[in-house]
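Many introductory courses stop at the sequence. We go one step further.
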Amino acid sequence: MYIIISHQSALEYWRLHGGDKLDHLKKQHRKSLPTSFPKIADMRETIPSGLSYPINLMFASSKDRRKSSVVQPHVYCGPISDLCFLKMEEGISISSPAFCFFQMAGELSLIKLIELGYELCGSYSLPATKGNSIPSTKGNSITATKGNSIPATIGKNLSRGVEDKNIYGHPQLTNTKELLMCASRLKGISGHVNVSRALRYIVDGSASPMETILVMLLTLPYKLGGYGLPPPELNKKIEFGKSAAHRYGKAFYVCDLFWPKDNLAIEYDSALYHTGAERINNDSKKRMDLAILGIDVITVTNKQIQRRDMFEDLSKLIAGKLQKRLRYENDKFRKAQRELHSLLLN
């Protein structure tokens, strides 16, 4: 038996295990996909724990590929690159994070695909759906519970001030360079158009879902509900010279959003990490030290992101610092903006 885990199941796996497993998996150089349907007894021994059912698997043809409570088949006849698959163990491979991004392009809207791209190219992972236990076989019947759809955002929890420390500090699963390389090798496949559009707006290095939301709201074009500002560098390390490092008591600061040409930094004031007297004092010292270096720092709160009127004032302030003039048509823009906020924050 040979199987390839793909689509939502692959995404769920990377969200569950990506930080621990990615460096240990080798590229799978394949010229063809599986043609035989796996036996449930064999799957019991091979499918990683924690994945929801039905498991998404890839096949070379649609012959005898019946959807069931156990397997969701996906037929793929397009080109295969060495960037597509990673070998987990003998008899089982999985779509790489980059190829998984292509597969999800056929299931997500453009906005949600961009958001997923930030996650895969960042250092956080959203919670995966809790998987059901491996299906049991009773006679000829199969008992399994269909898994829930995998969440593409946790905006609702964030809007309520609920944050989970476990989603932060994960190794980056892929990057925009790898996604672009994958796109160049997989031209013509389903989802390629959406991927090409999404890659225009994705930036490497986001450290949290709210950083992603903030950047998307600021930089997506007017037609998508953003303010069309130039993309910043994310989590940019501002290093000091030896004398300055001795003076400031550290070798560098990290800015959430940074526009180097204009020496402008944006810091997201998370309730999770920016409370308590010591943290407040450290944040104040950071702003002062960066100001001495000529870097202007603007602090953004959750409330400013949630309220569109406050966010518009913030965007105008940032645009002014970047010497950009906001030019948007109110009626069309307001509709797109409401839709964008709803998709990202509700």
